Amino acid sequence: MNSASARNRAVDVYRGFVMLLMMAEVLHFSQIARAFPDNWVWQTLAYHQSHVAWEGCSLHDMIQPSFSFLVGVALPYSIASRLAKGASESSMFVHTCWRALLLIALGIFLRSTHSPQTNFTFEDTLTQIGLGYPLLFLLGLRPPRWQWVALGVILVGYWLVWALYPLPAELGFGAHWQKSDNFGAAFDRWFLNLFSRPSPFLSNRGGYLTLSFVPTLGTMILGLAAGRWLRASAPTLPLRQFLLAGSACVVGGLLLHFGGICPIVKRIWTPAWTLFSGGACFLLLAGFSWVIDVRGHRRWAFPLVVIGMNSIAAYMIAHLWEEFVLSSFRIHIGAGFFDFAGPELAPLWSGLAVLAVFWLSLWWMYRRQLFLRV
To answer: How many other C-beta atoms are found inside a 10 Å radius of the C-beta of residue 112?
Structure first.
């Protein structure tokens, strides 16, 4: 079996895969699918490059929970490394709070790039992670039973608050998780209007919520468990634990969903979604660990390692660079250059060119050991 350091390669590959899914939005499969409505390949690709409308899950929906889960996986290694260097728990907690503030600020910055003023909104992936990260760190210092108690309190308590939110009885129990008229949306109509904004906040168009950071913390706790199992089992791999935990969480989420207790909705991060997506993250980590560490197939994964080792940089590039790169192509090689296979496929070819620029930039940073850390 491989060492703990080798297992980290599988984590980097998984993280790189997740960030590649995000960066690959530049391929605009949905736009191509509209041009080929009868082509099932493009329709399938478009479905899995988009978030589902409400209930359910696509591959694209797994980006945020995977990113959050991997934050938890990395934490035991980070804590052990800092303790080995002589850092105290208090100094580490101060650093953790500073890191959390930076993540929150970055998330707000990214949501404000097309706004007339600072857009104080807290549903961005980085912001959601930042809001829960200090609590995750404190759990990382405590025995494992603390994390399981915390996870149970989060899932049950969050479900209970939503289930008890007053709604007309004739709407039915499932209405407690409807879009824009739920406990989380009511909280945002109060909380987000405490900040200066061009007009009063009424609802988020996609249904996303500030309070989703609470069940997102549950996803990170599942990742914390995975990271602890990885360190404790070194130099072997806890694949059996991953498979059992993943299967149990997926089944638990499905039972809540089909039992009418709580639907699987990523946009408001229901407890059922926390279990279902967290279970899928366990299974994905098991798969990458098996391929990379058990089977020893590593060469194919180098492009993903380049991305995964610089995930914050990849996240910022995916959100900020597309328009600049596309405009540079239009200026220097012509507006119709990517129409050589027909205008319907132009978004694919231009997207591949943009994606290549993204990756080559990250590769340049990788070669020079330039890694953006928060």
So the answer is: 14
